[in-house]
Write a structure and sequence with these properties.
mainly alpha; two-stranded antiparallel ribbon; 2 strands; 61% helix
Amino acid sequence: NVDHKFKLYSKKGQLPFVEVNGQQICDSSNIIKELSQKFEKDIDAGLNNEQKTISHAMISMVENHLTFVIMAWRAKNPGEMVNGYKINFQQSLGSKIPNAILNFLFKVNYGHRASKKVKAQGIGVHKPEEIVEMGKEDLKALSELLADKPFFFGDEPTLLDVVVFASTAQIYFISDDAKYALKEFMVEQCANLVGHVSRIKERCYSDWDEICNNLELNPHLPKPE
């Protein structure tokens, strides 16, 4: 894991990306697919054909719909996004420019760029309250599929669990000060998704608090004395 202060992108202009033996692999889905094949670690190996079909459909919903629902809220509320995630741009970018100026520049630039993306995708042409309802339907579908199971297809996580976590973590682990409607819905109507996102956090991110408090992307690397 390399902390490059958001200054290094893949040849396709994307983040995240990985480099294996000098070859870049970008886009999360492609990364997982390529690494699974290379190291023979298929986390969906135990699924039957029907489960793989359901997983594919749900992943498409999350990546091509719910992700843009989240982005649409951020585009309209960049200030609440910064405060809700407690982003410190001076620290994360390694800049000496005052945070007040960096926050202002982010709000202007991000809001414009994100709005263009969600409009190009199609969701951005709808009213904010309509977009929220779309997000609620996505969360409800995921909640019904999860039911009372620890993970979507049983006792062990699969690719669908990984993809869903990437989005629901962004919804759930945001400060209540942001007054995010999707978080309120998730807490009140999709308690099993709250359990799911918390379960994966505890299982995979023992250094979560350190990362969030220090904005440290490399907690596993030895620190100089």
